[in-house]
Amino acid sequence: MKDILKRLLDGEISIKEAEKMLKTYQIDEIEDFAKLDTSRHLRTSIPEVIFAENKEDEDLIKIIGHCSSLGHVMVTRLPEDRYELIRPELDFIKEKDVRFEYNKKAGILVIKNHEIEKEGKIGILTAGTSDIPVAEEAKITAEEMGCEVLTAYDAGVAGMHRLSGPLKKMIEEEVKALVVVAGMEGALPSVVAGLVDIPVIGVPTSIGYGVGEGGFTALYAMLQSCSPGIAVVNIDNGFGAGIFAAKIAKQTLK
């Protein structure tokens, strides 16, 4: 964008040409299968994100390689076995002076050429250990949005005494939002929302059995909560919760 404006200022291109170039700058196409939002971070503060599920390995490698030039990109829903499979094919990216950070619990690959400055603070709680992968997805996402993240896992309603200590610490640390991840009956967000004066983001997970299988019982319970102050994202959507929490935290800094 700076290059286009400089060329306009130097008289190398007309206003009409600059306008056309700025419009096309917003989208970068890869052959006939992908369109990249190259200015997403400038517009929304969210880095470019590649959803790995259901993409062919060959296409995914091309997209990752192309996006790496942006200097900061996340690849989500990338399980460890698949990452190990495509990792050798990504060696060419090293020439762009970027580093890889892969979190196997979250299933997220981050490729970046700079440190992300941390501003704002959020907390993440899980009801059980089985909910940690979804919580880690929220954690990595919020960190890449520039937030400091405090976590406390396995603090659900089956043992309420586990909750008070971590929750007290998060409040003392002045977190600006809480992401609360729970499967089974999904009760933890309601309990937490009744104890704090900050926004709570409920994340239902697909952990459960019988009528709770697939996460719908947890989802319905969170949507039907009688504790005000809860927003609910989709089942297993740690990414969406991390984005929402980070945006809340950043708003408090303005």
**Percentage beta strand:** 15-25%
Mean pLDDT, as a whole number?
87
> What proportion of the residues is helical, as a percent range?
25-40%
Strand order, sheet with most strands: 8-7-9-10-11
Q: Are there runs of 5+ residues with pLDDT below 50, and where?
A: none
Describe the protein.
- The chain has 254 residues and is α/β, with parallel strands linked by helices.
- 36% of the residues lie in helices and 20% in strands.
- It has helices at 2-9, 15-25, 40-44, 57-67, 80-86, 132-144, 164-172, 188-193, 216-223, 238-251; strands at 27-30, 34-37, 48-51, 72-76, 99-103, 108-112, 121-126, 148-152, 178-182, 200-204, 230-232.
- Helix 1 packs antiparallel against helix 2 (15-25) and helix 6 (132-144) packs across helix 10 (238-251).
- The longest helix has 14 residues, at 238-251.
- The two termini are 26 Å apart.
Q: How do you describe this structure in short?
A:
The chain is of the alpha/beta class and 254 residues long. The protein contains 10 helices and 11 strands. It has 2 domains: 82 residues, no CATH class; 131 residues, Rossmann fold (3-Layer(aba) Sandwich).
What structural keywords apply?
four-stranded mixed beta sheet; 2 domains; alpha/beta; Rossmann fold; five-stranded parallel beta sheet
Secondary-structure map with pairings?
Elements: H1 2-9, H2 15-25, E1 27-30, E2 34-37, H3 40-44, E3 48-51, H4 57-67, E4 72-76, H5 80-86, E5 99-103, E6 108-112, E7 121-126, H6 132-144, E8 148-152, H7 164-172, E9 178-182, H8 188-193, E10 200-204, H9 216-223, E11 230-232, H10 238-251
Parallel strand pairs: 3-4, 7-8, 7-9, 9-10, 10-11
Antiparallel strand pairs: 1-2, 4-6, 5-6
